[in-house]
Task: structure prediction
Amino acid sequence: MNIREEQERFEHMHFSPYASFSDKSQGRDYQEEPCTIRTIYQRDRDRILHCKSFRRLKHKTQVFIAPEGDHYRTRLTHTLEVAQIARSIARALRLNEDLTEAIALGHDLGHTPFGHAGERTLDAICSQGFRHYKQSIRVVEVLEKEGKGLNLTKEVRDGILNHGTNTTPATLEGKIVRLSDKIAYINHDIDDSIRAKVIREEDIPKAYTKVLGDTTKARLNTLIRDIIYHSLDKADICMSEEVEQAMMDLRKFMFTHVYQNSIAKTEEQKVDKLIRELYTYYLDNPAELPEHYKMLMNQRKDSLERVVCDYIAGMSDQYAIQTFNNIFVPKAWTVE
Result:
């Protein structure tokens, strides 16, 4: 009995005609023998879940750098929240939940330590530029498995690459993740900001809460339901004009009052200096890069700048600080 084939038949019987069917995938760059149990997108999901870059997300900043407290989001918990929201929408619309989950779990694999502060610094100092969504693709195509990559399907990689605001994924599942990312970070960043006493719930303009709700739970319910009911039996993922506008206005509010807030961002100057110093150091001392990254230069002929970006972007917050201390902070001299 081939369980995968049974699942593929189930998809054709029960999924929306607008879904991405597992047996109709555009495939991988390198052909592989199909699994007898898992569909092609289930295998992608599992590969992402078990890769090293995914595990490092637990020690990467979401918004608040080195917060005191166990309940602030990290890049990993953000990723899991995006996956949960996206799966709920995909299931309700009878789309491919496995593809949706794979894209969601992989969408931030290329994020730097210290959140967008680290991303901005690398983008500013690297002549080739740096964007986390492009780095996420580089992670799954090149950096994982000692330069072999994860050999993911084209649909998953398309969704990862195009999850940002200014691009459009090719699949409805990718479009779900794109919206779910915004829904997740806007709402959990509000929650964290209230916990950090950066803002209060009452500070959010009534024009937005009147439409979306005045609690995190209410806002999530409003946004998720709005997408589902306006996308049913359509070849697109849609929102009502009123709710979408309120969400985007709330996002602007968060940029002004949280993401650019002086209290929340007090450590960013230190982050900028730390990453600049590490970047310059490894450009000047490429022999001190780990062997895996030297291999990228020797075998793939990748530039030193790109490989240094790879190394720094892959660091967790803790590892980046530890590396900086090991290189630049004097150690006490002892006699044994």
Notes: The domain at 41-259 is CATH 1.10.3210.10 (Hypothetical protein af1432). The longest helix spans residues 172-195.
